[in-house]
């Protein structure tokens, strides 16, 4: 398959729907490299789908521009943009066979009958749909339907594939299966994938980069692992996985004060106003007085202990009443009981400072 | 699923009540005698022959067909356009608009007939084919509107978006995706419109003249004046014609959708 | 707000893809124009004209309406019509309720069959149906023979009000079943199971849990049957007694025989008022029942 790709640039994209409410999209800047798998991740209403729809051309931006390979697309009709698109509801034409569905974009481009036949049967074969060409979408399973939708969107070799929560309608098992297929597909075809989802596990698994959306803005952007370890903002820290968060202040450049605790900040820069964040799997539990030297710790009461096989989850209540957790190997959790007074502790590399 | 026998006895009785009475028309229309005796003393097709040979009956069938054939396309055009137009409005306006345009369905039939009759009388349209066509179109539009609107509201908007994303111009999208999917509603509406017109009595009764007697009016007059089993034959014809139209539409539709599997857009 | 705006895409797609917002508004107007014109010309105007006629002829004033209540005959016809309509509504509910209920509890296949059966009357000519009843009700007809044999009644029903009642119930039955089914389908039957789980007997659970939930649907279906039978002409004309006419026949007679348009118009408008009042009443009752249902939750 042809992999014509171009750089997709989004500059200061804004969408205001009128009235005096907040903007749906309040200024997005994004550069997507050719062949990248980028996910727009965020809760409902965060503007990620609106952004995708603006890229596709279905929603005209209030201001800002979208460029593909240097050409400005703003104002160009959706049917002229040439992006492939996959919808959550698949949007397969119910009155057409699988063959006709997949052939549709090729017919719009005036390809010859022979060429259409070849391209369609080729891609149908590749996607494991051989033999189903004459069937109607209603006669296919959910997984098959989604593959047809993908085939239809890719058969005309678009430079970019836009995916709007395509796996949302599937059950867990099927979802996992298709996630794997999607990842392999991306590696094979090398096209730019712009993927929208609210499922952070999915985003972490599939993406080269993730853009986390919050209320119309990109709150954090980066590779999944980087974003996880160094979230940058409190929103990203909470959205991407779990976090134990402590909103305190810097007593001095090397000390962070929270409640009655004083913690060492370690090396590296941090913003002037920050929240301290530690992931549960980097949090350990010790009896008071047994915290290793150099570690930061906080008092906590154990509210629940769950053995999840090789790891255990210890739910904690911190002095300010908020909840947190520690996830550790079960061997280290043997002595912990509900109601225990413990010290939750972490070493300096495990903590991160994020803007609130 | 509870197997309460009493419930199912009631249901079957109701089902029988819904379907059986009309079936009696068929043996009645084939009677050899000249009364409505049941069971018929003998069998004969003479009343059907009478239906065809008698000038009065034949003309009535012709008039009914003429009016139905003229009013149906008009009602379909008006109703379909209105349905598409309503879909472009916000939900609230659409509800109000649909309600307003469907009002003829819940207003007592006699009142609408009276109103139209009064107006047509003044305009000299009473007793004309045009008058009949206009009157029945007015009654038929709500049927078409509801049928098409139902279909449109069930239409998945993403289909249009998908087709556009695949490179089809808006006009092509309409031609290849939207219209084919709405068509069943339009056809259904057309069938309802035809049936409503063909079977309509009250307006036709008021607007009748010696030259514009529809089949239902002819039947009604025959009952009031002097009944002979031709009425049964006519009724059976009515039932058959109406059912046939619906069945043909259904079968023609299924065949068409099967053919589409091969070709298409 | 953002979510609904996003849902706009579908609607936005064809409209905005066309480019110009003003262009699409013209298109909307063009699409709706014929229907609006037809409605105004063939529905609104004639009705308005009738109202005007009823209060201006032969002289200006409400005497046509006053006559409705002073003329004993008209009053009797009105009352009779209302009673018959009520009877039809009750009969239809008695038949529609079990039928619609059965449709909610049966398998999808059976439901499809039941659905088709209910829709058949829509396809068959109303006139033909009434005529079939004529045959059945006549002297010597099946109903007559049946009654003679079972109840010893030797009185043909053709030309009587009971015949009208029965025939209209049958003709209007689908109009009661369909909305009732739609409403009953929404009821969560697990509530009844829950009541039984809490110790109520089958009958009790049904009466105290299911019926109140079904009430709004029942009221709506009954009201529809009532409203539709008010203005019925064919059935009473064909099956009814000339001494016991209903209002539609009265209107017809006034127009065709007496040529008293104004009087007929007044009766017609009165009929409309009763219809609208009934519709509003049923909505009010139904809303109160729904409110009580919500409160009970």
TrEMBL record, chain B:
<dbReference type="GO" id="GO:0005886">
    <property type="term" value="C:plasma membrane"/>
</dbReference>
<keyword id="KW-0997">Cell inner membrane</keyword>
<feature type="transmembrane region" description="Helical">
    <location>
        <begin position="173"/>
        <end position="198"/>
    </location>
</feature>
<feature type="transmembrane region" description="Helical">
    <location>
        <begin position="129"/>
        <end position="152"/>
    </location>
</feature>
<keyword id="KW-0472">Membrane</keyword>
<dbReference type="GO" id="GO:0055085">
    <property type="term" value="P:transmembrane transport"/>
</dbReference>
<dbReference type="InterPro" id="IPR000515">
    <property type="entry name" value="MetI-like"/>
</dbReference>
<comment type="similarity">
    <text>Belongs to the binding-protein-dependent transport system permease family.</text>
</comment>
<feature type="domain" description="ABC transmembrane type-1">
    <location>
        <begin position="61"/>
        <end position="249"/>
    </location>
</feature>
<keyword id="KW-1003">Cell membrane</keyword>
<protein>
    <submittedName>
        <fullName>Putative spermidine/putrescine transport system permease protein</fullName>
    </submittedName>
</protein>
<feature type="transmembrane region" description="Helical">
    <location>
        <begin position="231"/>
        <end position="253"/>
    </location>
</feature>
<keyword id="KW-0812">Transmembrane</keyword>
<dbReference type="InterPro" id="IPR035906">
    <property type="entry name" value="MetI-like_sf"/>
</dbReference>
<keyword id="KW-1133">Transmembrane helix</keyword>
<feature type="transmembrane region" description="Helical">
    <location>
        <begin position="93"/>
        <end position="117"/>
    </location>
</feature>
<dbReference type="Pfam" id="PF00528">
    <property type="entry name" value="BPD_transp_1"/>
</dbReference>
<keyword id="KW-0813">Transport</keyword>
<feature type="transmembrane region" description="Helical">
    <location>
        <begin position="61"/>
        <end position="86"/>
    </location>
</feature>
UniProtKB/TrEMBL annotation, chain C:
<dbReference type="GO" id="GO:0055085">
    <property type="term" value="P:transmembrane transport"/>
</dbReference>
<dbReference type="GO" id="GO:0005886">
    <property type="term" value="C:plasma membrane"/>
</dbReference>
<feature type="domain" description="ABC transmembrane type-1">
    <location>
        <begin position="78"/>
        <end position="282"/>
    </location>
</feature>
<dbReference type="Pfam" id="PF00528">
    <property type="entry name" value="BPD_transp_1"/>
</dbReference>
<feature type="transmembrane region" description="Helical">
    <location>
        <begin position="113"/>
        <end position="137"/>
    </location>
</feature>
<comment type="similarity">
    <text>Belongs to the binding-protein-dependent transport system permease family. CysTW subfamily.</text>
</comment>
<feature type="transmembrane region" description="Helical">
    <location>
        <begin position="266"/>
        <end position="285"/>
    </location>
</feature>
<keyword id="KW-0813">Transport</keyword>
<keyword id="KW-1003">Cell membrane</keyword>
<keyword id="KW-1133">Transmembrane helix</keyword>
<feature type="transmembrane region" description="Helical">
    <location>
        <begin position="82"/>
        <end position="101"/>
    </location>
</feature>
<dbReference type="InterPro" id="IPR000515">
    <property type="entry name" value="MetI-like"/>
</dbReference>
<keyword id="KW-0472">Membrane</keyword>
<feature type="transmembrane region" description="Helical">
    <location>
        <begin position="209"/>
        <end position="234"/>
    </location>
</feature>
<protein>
    <submittedName>
        <fullName>Putative spermidine/putrescine transport system permease protein</fullName>
    </submittedName>
</protein>
<feature type="transmembrane region" description="Helical">
    <location>
        <begin position="157"/>
        <end position="181"/>
    </location>
</feature>
<keyword id="KW-0812">Transmembrane</keyword>
<feature type="transmembrane region" description="Helical">
    <location>
        <begin position="29"/>
        <end position="48"/>
    </location>
</feature>
<dbReference type="InterPro" id="IPR035906">
    <property type="entry name" value="MetI-like_sf"/>
</dbReference>
